[in-house]
Amino acid sequence: MTDGRTRRRVDTRQRLFVAAVELIAEQGFSATTVDDIATRAGVAKGTVYYNFESKTVLFEELLRHGIGLLTAEFRAAVAGLPPREALAALVRAELDYIRRYRAFAQLLLSEMWRTNREWQQTLRLLRGEAIEVIAETVRAGVASGDLPADLDVRTASSALFGVGLVVAVDWLVFQPERPIEDVQEALLGIVRRVAQT
Amino acid sequence: MTDGRTRRRVDTRQRLFVAAVELIAEQGFSATTVDDIATRAGVAKGTVYYNFESKTVLFEELLRHGIGLLTAEFRAAVAGLPPREALAALVRAELDYIRRYRAFAQLLLSEMWRTNREWQQTLRLLRGEAIEVIAETVRAGVASGDLPADLDVRTASSALFGVGLVVAVDWLVFQPERPIEDVQEALLGIVRRVAQT
DNA sequence: GTTTTTGTACTGACCAGTCAGTTTAGAAGT
DNA sequence: ACTTCTAAACTGACTGGTCAGTACAAAAAC
C-alpha cells in the first residue's frame, strides 16, 4: 500500500498542494499560472498534469484536502464535550488550524463567497460539511438549554465559522507581529458573552 | 459644467463601474476581462481605455469610489452621537451600505486580504481610512468610560469592520431569501453584549 | 520492467492594450 | 435657423504576448 512509488507520488502531490495554496492565497486562482505552481514546487510542468487532470481539478482536490482536514479537527475537538465547552473547543480548533495553515485560510476567505466559478459548487459543499459540525454542537446546546432557545442554528453556525476566519486572517495580514493567542482569547470572550442564555 | 459632454462621460464611467463591480464580485479581478466589462456596460472596448488608463487603474478608481462612499456614510452616521449609540449607528450604516452595494461588498470581502497584487497598497490605504472612523468612535468610548478600558482600539475596530462584512455577505450569498434586517439585529445584539464594560 | 518524473517544444485560445477611423455635441460663422 | 467646423467621445479590428494543456523521448526511481 505505502510502497516507495506511492509515497513518492503522494509527496509530489503534497508539494504541488503547498505551492498552489501559497500562490493562490497571494494572487488568486486565475492570476496563478500552472508554470508558477510547478516552478515553486520544484517540479516539471508535465508532472502537474501527470498528477492532476487540470488546473481546476488540482484546485478542487486542494480544497477537498484542506477543508477535509479542518472538518476532521472540528470533529476531534468536540468529541465527548458538553455544548458550551465544545463551542470554545471549536473556536480554538479553528484558530489553531488557521495558524498552522495560514495560506489556506487566506485562500478560503478570498474564494469562499465567490459566485460563478467552476469550483464554486465543490466549495459550497465542503463549507457545508465543516459548518455542519458546528451546527451539531449548537443544536445540542439549544436542545439542552445551554444556549438560548431562540438561536437560529444555521445562521449562528455559519456566522461563527466566518467570524473566526475573518478575524484571524485580518490579524495575520494586517497585524502579523502580534501573537495569535490574543485573537483566540478575544474571540473566546466574544463567543462566551454571546452564548449566554 | 454639466453640459452634454461631461454628463455623457460621467454616465459612461458610471456604467463601467457598475459592470466592473458586478463581474469582479462574481469572478474576481483576474478572471474578469476588459471585453466582459465593456460588453456588460454596453460600450466598445476602446471606450474603457478612453476613460481609464488601464484595467488596474479602473479597478483602483472603483475601489476609491466605493470605499470613499462608505467612509462618508460612516462619518455621517456617527456625527454628534455619544460613543455607544455611535457604535450601533456604525453597524447600521455598514449593513445599510452592504445592502445597497452588495456586489461591491462581496468584491471587498474577496480582495481585501490579498497580498502581492498591484492595487493592494491602494486598498490597504482606503481600508485604513474607513476603519479610522470606527477607531475614533471606539477611542472616544474608551476615553469616556463607555467602553472597557482594556479594549485594543485598533484590533476592535478592524474586527468590527470585518465581522460586519463577513456576516452580511455570507448571509447575502448563502441565505439570500432571509431579510437583512435580521442580520442587523443579530449583529447589534452581539456588539451590545461585547461592548459591555 | 513498470511507474513516475523530466525537459523541451509546441498549439490554439484568449486577452490587455493600441490605433486609425467614425460619430456626436455644441460652438462659431452666416 | 441652418450649415460648417472642431474637439471630445466612442468604435472595433488588430497585435503581441501569455498561458492551459499536449506530446513525447529520455531518464530516474523503485
Write the layout of secondary structure elements.
The structure is a homodimer of 197-residue chains.
Chain A: H1 4-27, H2 34-41, H3 45-51, H4 55-78, H5 83-100, H6 102-111, H7 120-144, H8 153-174, H9 180-194
Chain B binds a DNA duplex (30 and 30 nucleotides) through residues 3-5, 8-9, 12, 33-35, 43-51, 54-55.
How would you portray this structure in words?
The structure is a homodimer. By secondary structure, chain A is mainly α. In chain A, about 80% of the residues lie in helices and about 0% in strands. The first copy, chain A, has helices at about 5-25, 35-40, 45-50, 55-80, 85-100, 100-110, 120-145, 155-175, 180-195. In chain A, helix 4 (about 55-80) packs antiparallel against helix 5 (about 85-100), helix 5 runs parallel beside helix 8 (about 155-175) and helix 8 runs antiparallel to helix 9 (about 180-195). The model of chain A has no long low-confidence stretch (mean pLDDT about 95). Chains A and B meet through helix 1, helix 6, helix 8 and helix 9 of A and helix 1, helix 6, helix 8 and helix 9 of B. Chain B binds a DNA duplex (30 and 30 nucleotides) through helix 1 and helix 3.
